[in-house]
Amino acid sequence: xxxxxxxxxxxxLLLLVIFTLAGIGLYIKLGFDVNENIDEILTARMDRIxxxxxxxxxxxxxxxxxxxxxxxxxxxxxxxxxYFSDTTVLxxxxxxxxxCRKMTELKQFKDNYYKIQITYSRFxxxxxxxxxxxxxxxxxxxxxALLYYLNYRLSKSVWQQFFKTIYTLRNFKIGQRDKVxxxxxxxxxxxxxxxxxxxxxxxxxxxxxxxxxxxxxxxHEIQTPLAxxxxxxxxxxxxxxxxxDILKQVQIAxxxxxxxxxxxxxxxxxxxxxxRQFVEQADVxxxxxxxxxxxxxxxxxxxxxxxxxxxxxxxxxxxxxxxLADVLISNLLNNTLKHNLQNGMLSIVSAxxxxxxxNSGLPLTVEPEKLFQRFSKNTASNESTxxxxxxxxxxxNLYAISxxxxxxxxxxxxxxxx
Amino acid sequence: MKILIVEDEKNLRETITDFLKLEGYxxxxxxxxxxxxxxxxxxxxxxMLVDIGLPDGTGxxxxxxxxxxxxxxxxxxxxxxxxxxxxIEGLDLGADDYLAKPFHLTELNSRIKSVLRxxxxxxxxxxxxxxxxxxxxxxxxxxxxxxxxxxxxxxxLLLFFVSNPQRVLTKExxxxxxxxxxxxxADSFDFVYSQLKNLRKKLLEKTGTDYFKNVYGSGYTFVAxxx
Lengths: 418, 227
Prior knowledge:
By secondary structure, chain A is an alpha+beta fold. Chain A has helices at residues 3-55, 123-170, 188-238, 244-274, 286-303, 322-338, 388-398, and strands at 63-64, 70-75, 81-91, 96-109, 112-121, 282-285, 307-311, 317-320, 345-351, 354-360, 402-408, 411-417.
């Protein structure tokens, strides 16, 4: 629900209550006033009648006037009294009941007791209710109409700034280089929000840059000592004078350093992907990329006598970071090569928005769900870092590419859906 | 050949210097941008190895300076920041090559030779070793005057060895040189072995010389001066 509608509905409900209460109040107050008025009229009339009776004591005054408004009857002894009441009177003319105000006076005149009743129609008050009701409804409708017009104008002008902010926020990417700025306008609350957002985004970007710097510095700090160890060991390996025993130890150290450096590279890559540091995007022809990469390592496949079945007729073009596209394809190809069998096969098939890599291989020793987790290694091979498929999964995550693994008839299949 | 090494890490610098001195290069070093800038102003070099992350700035500044004064000098970036941005920026500024740390010294040597060949001899240079004649830019190899047909990978392998004569080339270095990121495959050493076997056979057929020597466990050495 739009904020403005939310407010309006409540506003209107409140108005409705106020209008109803005001209507009732007005009705009561006006009714009271009208009664008072009528009572005054009735009293004056009553006084006139009394006056007439006093002045013409001999005339017969018991009876009902022609318009039924005056009724005088003789009654038994009673205490003189005068009071007002409401009643209905059958209107002979319209053949309907009118509500009336009635004044009754019990009076002693000489030795007789009389009851004098005079009535006065209250149709004016009924009219008044009608007028009041119509007026209230009219006013209410007018206010609603005005509110809607106001809303329309407001959302056109005032909320413009708000929607602009939303638009900017939606398009904000954490790694982007250019500064995000929310402009200020007339509305204080929005300006407040925008200035808070400006501060927040500046902080986020600063933190992000710090983090980025940290990862890069970490890379630098770790890779440099590794480079020293590696080069020192390589120098030792060049020495022809060292004994075979020592040579063997050095070889193991050398291999391990190489692995460590690969591991470090892999972890850095993962954290860079997680930190969304690969901002640049372009349309990448993945099929073309696969062909290029395959060409580069086809000798590796032929040396293992792997039967390559490549069907990449249906182009798969996806908007992503070119470096990550390369990493994605390389890791998948590397995976199919590493876990393939001698004289095995690899099939790569493209379909509409889909790429399937299938390769022959031994069944998994880990659960399929864990396949894409870090350091989950199927083979006991020390050469594998256990990060290849974790990186694949992370890249797929980043671009919402679906990733499915299945195993059937001695074939591992990884399906990517774009 | 004079090489300037700009690297703030003393141990790495010394190892590189020692390795390159054995190749017959004259090596000088600088630790900072200011230091390097001074050396570049005073002397001429054939090639500069430059680290990007330096204590008082980035290697990019030195590349810019060098390109202004001596555009013919070869430049190789050696950086621990294996990020594409740096690589692109470096190459855009005019660097000839980019090598991420940690690298194999033999790989560095091979890249230096390649750069020197490019900048010093404009690619006309032939490498002659006994009966073997290699034309790096035409990617041709002749054995006793007859052309030897090599695959792309075999040629790369040969050039890698020729750039590092008398050195032990480890299987790791060879695999990485040939297949880059794909080298960590468990079978890569078998692949190195079979590639080398093919190359060895082809060279032996045409020249009658076996140029390669197995170094037990580590790798192989190219023996240039045997008859």
